[in-house]
Amino acid sequence: MELTAVLTPAEEGGYVALNPETGTTTQGETVEEAIVNLTEATALYLSEFPLPAQGHPLVTMFSVPETSR
User: Which end of the chain, N or C, is less packed with Cβ atoms under 10 Å?
Assistant: First the structure.
């Protein structure tokens, strides 16, 4: 099963990792560690709350214009 991982830099260092399909969130000092931790957390979640089969998620980016003050 392929799922989405969204990583953002944490204020205290490292990364926060989120899986939007399940809502699982974790962190790690490196991108690799954050993904490993997210994989473990998501697998544990799915063992209790299985997801129905879905297609591949679509992930894209968009820009919001900056407003002048």
Answer: C
